[in-house]
Fold:
Amino acid sequence: MYGYLVRRLMQFAVVLLLGSVAVWAFVLLLPGDPATVLIGSDATDAELAATRARMGLDQPFLAQYGIWIGHAVTGDLGASYYSGQPVLTELMDRIPATVQLAGFTLVLTLLIAVPVGIVVALRPYSAVGRVLQGYLTVGLAVPAFWLGLLLIIVLAVQLRWLPASSDFVPLWQDPGAALTSTILPASAIAVHTSSVTARFLANSLGEVMGKDYIRTARAKGVPERDVIRRHAVRNAALPTVTIVGLQLGSFLGGTVVIEAVFNYPGLGRLLYTAIGERDYALVQGGVLFVVATFLLLNLLVDVAYGVLDPRIRLT
Amino acid sequence: MSAPSAGAPAVAPQRRRMAAARRFARSRSAVVGAVGLATLAVMALLAPIVAPFDPAAQGGEPLLGPSGTYWLGTDQLGRDIVSRMIHGARGSLLVAAGAAAVGAGIGVPLGLVAGYLGRWADAVAMRVVDLLLAVPGILLALVIIAVLGPGRLNLILAIGIGAIPEFARLTRVATLEVRERDFVLAARGMGASTPDTMTRTVLPNVLGPVMVQFVITASMAVVIEAGLSFLGLGTPPPAPSWGGMLQDARSYLYQSPTYGLFPGICLAATVFFLERIGRGLQLAVGGGGPRAARGIGRGAV
Structure:
């Protein structure tokens, strides 16, 4: 276990380092002088000189990176060109909204995917099983942002049950309003992600049901319900955790289009706007945050995996 | 058991391929997908002939509902929606195929080298792959377009680069499986150089899962392209695109609620056809298993 942990931590550190280099180099790849790129062409000479000094543009590349990463680890990611606010403040403004949407979507995804996956795996040819397989087929094919548009057309424009655009209402301030404003974007995403997860769970459950230990459990008289719950689902759930972890990562910054459809003030839309406004310090900070969070999530999933399944530690 | 495709690699590859093709043709869902996609592709190719109107002609009243003349109505400039949808298929299919080709073109060699050489090459390649995986596909595409600028070729590159990790991982795993097998050792023993062994002996044996991934990637690329066009960063506006049409539809939800329906159906149908083909291929070549769903995990837009 110890060796596995150390190896996994090393990988995490290396990828994070690579990521920070890529994010830093991003500004150099853009056409134009990096200092101008970062603070905009209408900056005064004094501002430009200050940015140059801050970035150390007269120094060798390695030193420039050192200066940048030195600032970044202390939380200084520069200032937004558009608002003048520190990048960190801008990000912190949006992170609660993104986390709330991601949380809602994750809960919905699991609420749908687990029962659907189990039924499809165990009773594929029953009436319910066939209907649910239909759901999986449709859910995989329908793009989340189009489904979001349809939900708006039907539920907000025609029936007027729910608001067409989703402002961010924190769950801890007004749970009811938080639910009604987040439920539409969350459902639009969850139909797709739950189909992926359910199909994956159904596949691995189908594989597990053919294993010898299931036959053994049945042979020694374990009731079928317990065979499924304690022996099959637990074993099939492990690989599914990886998929859910990847999906959770993709909710951070990967829901740009859904956020645009619903006017939801999340991280994705902040970055999209920042790219449009050439607010590159903000783009750098945002992408660095997304990469670091994703890697951390994955690390946690893998460590949990190693704790739960001793076989993993050996590979 | 997970990869019976590598079961009898040394004997008669043609016969194996024929058998796989027969299995594909026997699977009903695969045939449905293949016929559907072929129909779409023909419509896209023959768009100027098939489409009832010029997609740019502002012939009708704006935002008409479906009627005899304009089967699905007109958009905000009075352009025929059917014609724009048919022409929009071109961009979608082109970008999808292109992006999958870019992903495979870089990812497969990367995975092959990583899996076959192991050690440092493996460690370096896999960390790069981990990094690419850490950025959601659409966000990565947005950033790459910010660097490269707009345009169809850049769009293909931007989406394709995001698809490298899946190809690389899959090829690496498949390569590891065949690397120490007798026919590979035999080829080396007879004096084949390392690049030769990789391309002539190992590569043909990992192509099955790569084909499956190609189709899955194309289906994700269709959605990402539409998402980017929806945001105004995909196919540039005067040219019709499904994502761009959905963006227009969103602006006129109250005036023309049916507009948003049709381009989305095209999108969903394309993804559905590709997904069916992917499943059929998977059954035919025996690649993937539940792991093939991996790539889709990042598809949410």
